[in-house]
Design goal:
The chain is α/β, with parallel strands linked by helices. Helix content is 34%, strand content 32%. The protein is built from ten helices and 14 strands. Strands 6-7-8-3-9-10 form a six-stranded mixed sheet, with helices on both faces. Strands 2-1-4-5 form a four-stranded antiparallel sheet, covered by helices on one side. Strands 12-13-11-14 form a four-stranded antiparallel sheet, with helices on one face. The two termini are 34 Å apart. The protein binds adenosine-5'-diphosphate and magnesium ion (MG).
């Protein structure tokens, strides 16, 4: 059973009046999301992620294409669908002077809750999102992480079957991100909520999602489970070396090295695992009399993955 079935969706924004400009945000996107899964839309800034989520969540209308969500047409049945889905942004904005508990209650009233039912729902969400200590804190005084948790609490107020999370861990410290991710995983496993999230962190998508769709410039470039995509892309760590002499012909053929390229005086080697390969590489370079002036190790960035995909 599909929660989302979208075909060939396009959306172009027109802005300006005297000299109008057109931005093609989505250029024919098709996406299916089975119920009860977590699907990640992964892509760089401007890829069209927020536009796609907004269309799926009935907040924007597509220019063309067909979009069915929970069995309904997003344009014709928008009002009926809205009761069954919700969305949270990683860049939330709520009225700055309202307190956390008041914000959640405000949204509860919009969905028709009142009296003891409303109080119970607010209590439950405050507890679920670990906001108890901040219930009476004005929104403007919250940290980024707490603001995002308020957004998550708000998005659960109508007990949605389908949840859209737009960059849920944007700008969070790593330890806070881990907690948010655990919450998201629990929402699916304990409540069976279908979740579509956007992110530009490769590792986040890898950890959380059953399936990932790479989106760039309004198109889906690849789609699959994290394992399938990794097999295709051969994701590894990047070891960057500053060498003297700078060019070492055999480096690309060394054991465990998937590929090598020269970037601004550095040699960047993508390896299957840095911990395993770095000591061997350094030993081999030293044995050849090549001086290693500097070394950096990093996880592959999304850009690396796209470079591979676009080849
Ligand atoms: N309301 C808007 N008016 C004009 N252009 C927009 C609007 N919203 C988004 N865009 C443009 O559409 C493209 C996709 O934006 P967006 O969906 O926000 O990307 P992402 O969420 O992946 O960063 C970008 O080029 C952006 O500048
Ligand atoms: Mg966005």
């Amino acid at each position: 059973m599909l929660a989302i079935d979208a075909h060939d969706v396009t959306k172009t924004f027109k802005s300006g009046w005297l000299r109008p400009t057109r931005t093609a945000a989505l250029r024919g996107v098709s996406l299916t999301v089975p119920r009860g899964t977590i699907v990640g839309l992964l892509g760089p800034n401007g890829a069209g992620k927020t536009t796609l989520l907004s269309i799926l969540a009935t907040l924007l209308t597509p220019d063309s294409g067909s979009v069915r969500v929970l069995g309904h047409d997003v344009v014709r049945d928008a009002a009926r669908l809205r009761r069954r889905l919700n969305m949270a942004s990683g860049r939330p904005s709520f009225l700055w002077s309202l307190r956390v508990g008041e914000i959640v209650a405000f949204y509860g009233r919009l969905y028709g809750l009142s009296g003891s039912k409303l109080r119970r729902r607010v209590d439950e969400l405050i507890e679920l999102c670990e906001l108890g200590a901040n219930r009476r804190t004005p929104y403007s005084e919250l940290s980024t992480g707490l603001k995002q948790r308020v957004a998550l609490a708000k998005s659960l107020v109508n007990d949605p079957e389908l949840l859209f999370l737009d960059e849920p861990t944007l700008g969070l410290d790593p330890d806070v991100s881990v907690r948010v991710r655990r919450h998201i995983a629990d929402l699916r496993s304990q409540r069976g909520i279908t979740i579509v999230l956007t992110t530009h962190y490769m590792r986040e998508a890898d950890e959380l999602c059953d399936e990932i769709a790479f989106i760039k410039a309004g198109r889906i470039l690849a789609r699959g489970t994290p394992a399938e995509l990794k097999r295709r892309i051969r994701l590894g760590d990047v070891i960057a070396l500053r060498l003297d002499p700078p060019a070492v012909p055999w480096l690309g053929e060394a054991p465990g090295v998937l590929r090598c390229r020269a970037v601004d005086g550095w040699v960047e080697c993508t390896v299957d695992g840095a911990e395993k390969r770095l000591p061997d590489l350094l030993r081999a370079l030293s044995a050849e009399g090549i001086a290693v002036r500097n070394v950096r190790v990093r996880e592959p960035e999304l850009e690396d993955v796209f470079v591979e995909l676009a080849r």
